[in-house]
Write a structure and sequence with these properties.
Peptidase_M20; Cyt/Met_Dipeptidase; alpha+beta; 4-stranded antiparallel sheet
């Protein structure tokens, strides 16, 4: 591959085609089904599917033989599943490369700074702000653009399949049915490329080597059937919030954050320990500087290696929502009858999510304080993923691509988020190699306010993927 030509072409495709398409995509509030149960009637998902599929079909002028299809299945009740965009590009040889992304989005979230809006694209220099551009709307366009770069230089490549799902942010619950239905057409990929992950900086190519799983659900404590005057009942009726505090203390240490449920821990592999140490040396304080700290705040540790392991190979609890508590302006002197919290527990790779959910439920519901009614209703239970050993050809291809397009060595580390598709593919295709990467770097803030896509990284990543696909064919 002529790297200079490839990067220049990627730059042109991004500026003239991908960025304008992403601006249209950002304007579509196609929230994932978990956040928009009425998605089929709302029509936003269909609008996003049409935008991407139409653009993809137009790429047939640059990618001969490209076939684009919107696949639609129904569930057992006869209800529509979220659609999948399936694309196929013929290649040489018998191998297959599978490229993956998703088009559904997280909800709006509060806190967007003045001048920004989740559903209105704003470009400021190298950054394109708006919900879903970086997570993960760009993946459809970048995947085809990478193949287009190979076609422009008449470089051979294996057959490619691009799969874009529409419920990743809801745990990919529809995806297994599509994988089963499309299995004969997908074949047996020897390389999987996923563009839904992150990068610890924008200066080199990052490969994700593991992903945490997720167990989430609603914890509710009921102590009364209705609210009562706090002056009358406090000191006699235990606060539902205080009972919640006791229950949460069973789960994680309030002083350190260490999860106390041993069933959620694993032995960290030595190779991942060494990777964490190497990344900590490269990043230094960038490990935590990238977050929007309030003045005077600090991370849970000053040891970079421990911080990386905390977010990749150790469980961690977050409280992401609450019910039963009125807004401050409406909070009268009432002892509330119940409090409910949404728990989000990240679990390490190799932990069974079903067993983890069961262990969490038993820990929270057993022996309720004061005989209160305590319920934990699990919602999501997604497994983590640990990449297979890196093949020498992929290690060299990734290193070459990083040097060619970023000018620095590639780095490998685990990520703290969850991509359910990777665990599915790891089981179905145990011999495949994985290039899991993405543009979610410092400040990009996927799921939160002010999400942005770093455009130069997208351009370099597109060229890097093309380079790796070329190396895959020549291996």
């Amino acid at each position: 591959m002529n790297n200079t030509t490839a990067l220049a072409s990627s730059d042109s495709i991004w500026e003239k085609e991908i960025v304008p398409q992403l601006e249209r995509y950002i304007r579509i509030p196609n929230k994932s089904p978990a956040f928009e149960p009425d998605w089929a009637k709302q029509g936003h998902m269909e609008q996003a599917v049409k935008l991407i599929a139409d653009w993809a079909q137009g790429q047939a002028a640059h990618i001969p033989g490209l076939k684009v299809e919107v696949v639609r299945l129904q569930n057992e009740k006869g209800e529509p599943r979220t659609p999948v965009i399936y694309m196929e590009i013929p290649g040489e040889g018998k191998d297959t490369v599978l490229l993956y992304g998703h088009l559904d989005k997280q909800p709006e979230m509060v806190g967007w700074r003045q001048g920004l809006n989740p559903w209105e694209p704003v470009r400021e220099g190298d950054k394109l702000f708006g919900r879903g551009g970086a997570d993960d709307g760009y993946s459809s366009f970048a995947s085809l653009a990478a193949i287009r770069l190979l076609k422009e230089q008449k470089l051979p490549h294996s057959r490619c399949v691009v799969l874009i799902e529409a419920c990743e942010e809801s745990g990919s619950y529809d995806l297994p049915a599509y994988i089963e239905a499309l299995a004969p057409r997908i074949g047996q990929p020897s390389l999987v490329v996923c563009l839904d992950s992150g990068c610890a900086n924008y200066e080199q190519l990052w490969m994700t080597t593991s992903l945490r799983g997720l167990v989430s659900g609603n914890l509710r404590v009921d102590i009364l059937t209705e609210g009562v005057h706090s002056g009358d009942a406090s000191g006699l009726v235990p606060s539902s919030f205080r009972i919640l505090r006791q229950l949460l203390d069973r789960v994680d240490d309030v002083a350190t954050g260490r999860v106390r449920v041993e069933a959620l821990h694993v032995q960290i592999p030595q190779a991942r320990l060494e990777q964490a140490k190497a990344v900590a040396q490269v990043l230094g304080t960038e490990v935590y500087d990238r977050f929007p700290w309030t003045e005077g705040s600090r991370p849970v540790s000053s040891d970079g290696t421990e911080l990386i392991l905390n977010r990749t190979w150790r469980p961690a609890l977050s409280i992401t929502g609450a019910e039963g508590m009125p807004a401050l302006g409406s909070a009268g002197n009432v002892l509330r009858p119940y409090t409910s919290l949404k728990l989000s527990m990240r679990i390490p790779p190799r932990v069974d999510p079903v067993a983890a959910s069961k262990a969490l439920k038993e820990t929270l519901e057993s022996n309720p304080p004061y005989g209160a009614k305590v319920t934990f209703d699990g919602e999501k239970a997604s497994a983590g993923w640990d990449a297979p050993a890196l093949a020498p050809w992929l290690e060299k291809a990734t290193a070459d691509a990083s040097q060619a397009f970023f000018g620095k060595p590639f780095m490998a580390m685990g990520e703290g988020g969850t991509i359910p598709f990777m665990e599915m593919l790891g089981k179905r295709f145990p011999e495949a190699q994985f290039l899991i990467t993405g543009v979610l770097g410092p400040g990009s803030n996927a799921h939160g306010p002010n999400e942005f896509l770093h455009i130069p990284t997208g351009k370099k990543l597109t060229a890097s993927v093309a380079s790796v696909i070329s190396a895959h064919f020549k291996r």
